[in-house]
Structures are given as structure tokens and as C-alpha cells.
């Protein structure tokens, strides 16, 4: 991004540090009052009010002059989970760039339009109108889109504007878009999520979380914000996982969450249209539209090196540490009984290799300790334990930080016995084999950076050279990704 300094210097000379607003605050206010009205019943995901909002946004995209993506604005999807199917839809319009080569690279401006819906308390219907969260962001991308259409000759790269559905239910719309390549994700060079941008005056600035995921992005954003007289409060190289930047960031796209904090009545019924700072919204929207034009004209848009490496590694494998506890017993194959149940625990490291959307290969290395009963007294062993498992995701692995991934577990394991003791030691530890092999099966789920697994391990052979005693254990484990 070697042209940043010259580009910004030229901008400063042209605009003398403060630029005119590109976006009309009255139009923003009109959109918010409509989208956050009681008649839309809180725009719940999969609800009638959400569909009404989608229809309104579609009409506004069309009237703004945005082109429909692949011939249509409404891109429906179905979210399936726990025997429930929910229909949602992303609304997509775009402005084609003017450069014959760069027009095939995309900048995405997104904002989710769903909110929390409503609840019934006695005879009262309480509507969560979600003016700041996130009618403010949707109104902004509509008007930014209108301005970009009017200034399309200034764009070299193409710009895609998306109103996402299902964000409040777990980033469902944005995750669907990325995973199903609704837009060619490899050609997306940058992403903005405008989520809660209606409180500039009260907050005293704007957060641009993720600005450092773009190469030289820190300096770039600070200088342009200064030209628009906007104070940047929070920044960083971390992608915000709880808004629609999450799936794009996980795919390696530099992504910035534009945000005026939770100083509004966040997730409260009082998040109403009369509370928003519309002049501040226009200021932010003008800043974003200006940034978009500048980014569309840069010679190259590249992710920051550390971010690029981290996301590449994350999409290939994840590692973590886990601790588990449960029950253990010996199954005596030649008898009609099993030993009394004892206590088992393990601790170790794991790596999950991403094979596809539905399958991971999990390799673990653990210290295992368990106790049970034996003919000669209490049995205790210390093992090095190496399970290798396939994980099958029942609904495909989701990048959402809020929606759990349910998976089945099956595979094989090897254990090496470090030491074994039975009773008072009169029964020699030499009677026990050093090596043991077995199978495992179980169930697990992951959410955010946590992995929860419930697994049954069964040895295929006896550990005792004199008696057919097959170790079995059931372990409940909690893992945390690094």
C-alpha cells in the first residue's frame, strides 16, 4: 500500500481537513423510523416483521440504483437445527467498478437487519424495535449505496452492499454467505460491518475494531477519520467475532466493525428511533463512503501479514488444551461381571485438522490416570494416552461464535503404561502389558473457543497377562482452543 501517503496528502489538499457530508441525515432518519417501528414487530429472524424489513430494504436498494446480485436482490437460505427450520434472506446489491481488472475484486459493506422480535407479558406486547441495533447500520448502507451509485465513476473495485439476516441468532446470514460462496470470497479484499452506529455524539467517537487486519490500515483509517472530524476510540488487529465481521475474518478477509458502543439501550425495548444521533450517523456514513472510494482505488489491498498467517493456520487446523474426568472399570471378558467403577481423569493437548466442512481429524496426546478394583486390591495406573478420532459435524461446521457445532466422534487409541500398582504390590506390575489399543466413540459440541466432548473408550485387549481384563472409561472433557 505504498500509495497511501500520496493519496492521503492529495485528499487533505482537496478537502482542507474537513469534508462535506455525502449522506443526508433526513434520509437516514426516515429509514430508521420505518425499520424500527412497532409495525415490524422487532424484525425477528424468520418472523413476518423480518420479511417486511427485507421487502423494504429491497425496494430501497432498487430505488438507489444498486444492481441486483446475480439477477436478484433477495437471496434466501434455510437454517436447520434441532428439528426446526427457519427461513431467512440476505439482501444483496452492488456497484460495479470501472477498472477492467480491479472490478473483479470486491469491497463488502454489510449491516444486519434482524433484531430480537417481541415478547408477550400478560396482555401486553413488548416490541424490541432495535433502532440502534441495527436499523442504524441498515439505513447507513442504503444511503452509502445511493451515494456510491451516483459516484460510480470514482470506483475502480466493485462494492457489494449486504443486509444480513440472522445475526442475532448467531451470524447465520453472513456465515451462510461465506460458506456457500454466494459472493466469491477469494475475491473479497475488505469488509465493513456497520452494527450500531447511531450514538456518535453520546459515545464521543467511533470504534473501528479490526482496522489493523488491513496492511497499513491503522494510519490509513486514522488520517481519513481526522479529515471527517471523527475521533477513533477503539481499534486493533482482532476481528470482532460477535458481528458479521466474524465469518469474513475467519475466511481471511480484513474486516472492520464500525460501532458507537452500547451506550444506547442495548437489547432493550427502549432502543427506539427517537434516541439516535442522525447527524452523527450521516457523519459516519460519509466517512465510510469516502473510505470505500479510497480503498477501491488503491493499487493493492492486502491483509496484514500476522493476520493473514493466523487465519490461514486457523482454516487448516486448531490446537488446544483439554481436561477431562469420568468413570473407569475393567471388563472381565471370561467372567459374568465387571470391576467396581473408579475415577478417571486426563489432561493434554489436541489438534483438529480441518478436512472439510463436515469432517475434522482430531489427534490428542494426554496423561491418563484411573483407578478401579482388581482381585488383588485397588488398581491404579498412569498412562500416556493417544486417541485419534474423526469428528463428523451433523450440520456442517459453522464459523459462528454464538451457534454451537454438534459432532459425532469415533476412532482408535493407543496407551503406554508408565506405572501400575495393585493393592499392596504383592501382585507384580510385570503382569500388566505396557501397550494397549482400543476404540472410542462419543458426542461433542464446540462453541466459541470451547470444545466439550463425552467419549467412551474401550480397550480391544486385556492389560493383565493372566486375566482377560479390558479397560473401559467414560470421560467428559472440556477443551479450549489456543
TrEMBL record:
Top-rank taxon: Bacteria
InterPro entries: M28_fam, Peptidase_M28
Record's signal peptide: 1-20
GO molecular function, one term: metalloexopeptidase activity
Keyword Signal set for record: yes
Pfam families: Peptidase_M28
One Gene Ontology biological process: proteolysis
This protein's UniProt keywords: Signal
Domain Peptidase M28: 90-290
Record-linked PANTHER family: METALLOPEPTIDASE M28 FAMILY MEMBER, PEPTIDASE M28 DOMAIN-CONTAINING PROTEIN
The protein, known as: M28 family peptidase
